[in-house]
Design a protein that fits this description.
It is a single chain. The strands form two sheets. Strands 2, 4, 5, 6, 9, 10 and 11 form a seven-stranded mixed beta sheet that branches. Strands 1-3-8-7 form a four-stranded antiparallel beta sheet, with no helix packed on it. The protein is built from no helices and eleven strands. It has 124 residues and is mostly beta strands.
């Protein structure tokens, strides 16, 4: 079992930066494929950045070159560094962990088994 707890959200001005954290509480040392998703009310949850057990990262075009996903396996923590934030980045952000170190569809929410409660990011 894995419990995920996000933190670091908030309200910022366009062009500013935020770093989200996702702490994984688990007794297992297994490395899961992990990702960040975001969701706006009334819309589907969107995968934006993913990282596998080796550290290989993938991004959607809308955040590429602005967001950086990383993980600290010793601390069991996932990060999302967000630079040059835009109003369209406003959403609830969720971290997710798969039940496998590598998955074929890292931006598909149905590929993930564990989810955090979300942290709100508002850009004005």
């Amino acid at each position: 079992h894995v419990q995920l707890v996000e933190s670091g959200g908030g309200s910022v001005q366009a062009g500013e930066s935020l770093t989200l954290s996702c702490a994984a509480y688990t007794s297992s040392s297994a490395r899961h494929h992990m990702a960040w998703f975001r969701q706006v009310p009334g819309e589907e949850r969107e995968g934006i950045a993913a990282i596998d057990s080796t550290g290989y990262t993938q991004y959607v075009d809308s955040v590429k070159d602005r967001f950086t996903i990383s993980r600290d396996n010793a601390k069991k923590t996932l990060y999302l560094k967000m630079n040059n934030l835009k109003p369209e980045d406003t959403a609830m952000y969720y971290c997710a962990a798969a039940n496998h170190p590598y998955i074929l569809t890292p931006m598909d929410p149905s590929a993930y088994y564990y989810w955090g409660q979300g942290t709100q990011v508002t850009v004005s």
